[in-house]
Amino acid sequence: MRWALGALLGISLSVTAAQTPLRFAVPDSWAMPMVQLERGRPTQGILYDMMLSLATQVGVPAEFHVLPRTRVQSTMEHGGVDVRCFAAQSWLPNQSGDYIWSIPLFFQRDLLISHQDQPARVDTNRLPRQSIGTVLGYTYPTLQNLFDADRLHREDARNQEQVLEKLLARRYRYAVSNQWTLDWFNQRLTPEKQLQGVAILQEQSVGCYVRNDPKVPVQRVLRTLLRMKMSGEIDQIIRLYTGNSEVHH
């Protein structure tokens, strides 16, 4: 009997060891349709669904760590989380540590947006001096020279949805948003109140990167992400929330 108990204990310990969670970074600046945060925990959204599916297919539990955007990279460097998604190498020019990047998984389009009673197309370099809606901690390379020249002023909100709420309330005439959030936000507005993109600021592909650590199933994660992209699963998740699949130009 003692042997049987010992054997069972050994089996349960090895199962527990094999079930080390995959720890995902979730910046607290994310909003729907990327992630819905309720009481500090993600509950739904494109990236939540994708990360949960990824962990399930890899065969490990998913663990979500909600962090201020400014702490995500240092937490990765100190081994506090294993995977960060929706990132681009160009956003992290001074990245230290050993990481492996996935293939591009998403297409990120940043837009200058406004109300329908504003011109449908805008040249950002010709805008008069004013404040525009931005997200705290986000960088906007195509607008930075205008911020530096004191032509445009950032009015930061904690997340992307708050930026759009302020624009809707006409706290400012223009704001920056990604295409996903704009599509999601417009779904609940009547056609005449919907916000519109008036200039494309930046377009780039983004993916995930994984901490290259023997305790992390790096290759399984990368292979699974490749399969999820190639099979159309990721585009299907995007369509579920925005009504649109990825559009590349």
- Helix content range: 25-40%
- Structural domain tally: 2
Q: In oligomeric terms, what are we looking at?
A: single chain
* Global mean pLDDT: 89
Q: Describe the biggest sheet?
A: 7 strands, mixed
Residue runs with pLDDT of under 50 for 5 or more positions: 5-17
Radius of gyration: 21 Å
What overall form do the CA principal axes indicate? globular
Distance between the first and last residues' Cα: 67 Å
CATH domain fold name of the largest domain: D-Maltodextrin-Binding Protein, domain 2
Task: Look at the structure and give the CATH class of the largest domain.
Answer: Alpha Beta
Description:
The protein is an alpha/beta fold and 249 residues long. The protein has 2 domains: 22-107 and 204-242, Periplasmic binding protein-like II (D-Maltodextrin-Binding Protein, domain 2); 108-203, 3-Layer(aba) Sandwich (D-Maltodextrin-Binding Protein, domain 2), CATH 3.40.190. It is 33% helix and 27% strand. It contains 8 helices and 11 strands. α2 (46-58) packs across α7 (218-230). The N and C termini lie far apart (67 Å).
